[in-house]
Amino acid sequence: MNWKQLLSAKRWGYEHRDVTDPLDARSEFQRDYDRLIFSSPFRRLQNKTQVFPLPGAVFVHNRLTHSLEVASVGRSLGRLFYTLMKQEDPELDEKYPFLQEVGNIISAACLSHDLGNPAFGHSGEAAISSYFTQGSGQKYREQVSAEQWEDLTHFEGNANALRILTHHFNGKDEKGFALTYATLAAIVKYPCAAIDGHVKGSHHRKKYGFFAGEKDSFEKIAKELGLKQDPSNPRCYLRHPLVYLVEAADDICYNIIDLEDAHHLKILSYNEVEELLLPLCGGENLRARLDGLADSGSRVELLRAKAINTLINGCAEVFVRHQDKLLSGTFESALMDALDPVIVAQMKKIEKLSVAQIYNAPTVVQIEIAGFKVMNALLEEFVPAYLKTNKTLFDKKLVAMIPAQFHTQREDAYSKIRAVLDFVSGMTDVYAVDLYRKIKGISIPSLD
């Protein structure tokens, strides 16, 4: 793989047109970022759970604020990578004109990396999958192919993001978001179909990155950018190198910022947070600055900022140092796992404590259980109603509740199921709960 081909500004749906406006102050990749910022799927992230229940009296992060912070860290990673490369090769811009745009490509990809995640965090993904593995959705197994069944039984938000960005939904632009090929490839962490994913010991096939319906779309992107096929399975591809920086930005943010939220919610004490973050703050002596701050929240903010800075510098340096392996597709770990062993060990401590005290905190578990029940119940109602040939009056009314953009003209079971999943996975937490209550008769819409 080579940077000149990997950083293509060719735009999805406009492959044979020059859409560059010489008077536009924005680059093609900055336009990607702006399209995402102003989009409905991105705005809906403000009402989707990140880890903790959506804010009450105390602010915690949701999917939207998380995505904005990941985009900020991603831009810094990209700019630092470019700066380090420029120092080594002053003629870099002549060889690779778009390399200076890496920060913009990564920030756009970071904005979109969670677009496909359903309501209620990972519990929402699990609920969708379990409907087909343990619920009444098991009966559809004989109506779909083996490849299609695999992605139904392993719902993956990353694959759903690619679908949202490229699929032609009814009444919407047939070209989807018309993002650049480079940005689209940078969000696909696991460039394979579900049937080829979930491979132990393989970092780029740990999960999967596109649904059966988007297989041709991803192959088109891979061919344009010169992505290598996986030597162990020609149906799979090796990652676009920028995926590693998008992944690192996400890893940095959720590992560090979940601690900050836990402190706000009094799940972790200040001393616990300081013990975890201070070793990540580099050689700078922060004690005097920390002691000079009046409240623990400000001290946590300082520790968070310094820790993130350390991790950004470390990941960018790893990316530059291992660039040959990244371009050849032989780098088989996350950038965070290749940092200084002392930092890696400290991050493992954070991960272990987060699992024990944050991700299993009562409020987190409660929202996961409630979300699981809500999402599963919605599928139990909408999937059978949409697939039935002879619909009852109740079925017809349920189908009428599905917005026109999600309907499909195709008659096969997979396309119809996917249409319902598009609808349900796009719901916010609040909308899903409200709809659940209405169709179960728990709440009645106002007649005023």
From TrEMBL:
Q: Which GO terms describe its biological process?
A: dGTP catabolic process
Molecular function terms from GO: dGTPase activity
What is this protein's name?
dGTPase
Keyword list, A-Z: Hydrolase
Q: Which Pfam families match?
A: HD (PF01966), HD_assoc (PF13286)
Q: Matching Gene3D superfamilies, A to Z?
A: eoxyguanosinetriphosphate triphosphohydrolase domain-like (1.10.3550.10), Hypothetical protein af1432 (1.10.3210.10), putative deoxyguanosinetriphosphate triphosphohydrolase like domain (1.10.3410.10)
The record's annotation in NCBIfam families points to: dGTP_triPase, PRK01096.1
| SUPFAM superfamilies membership | HD-domain/PDEase-like
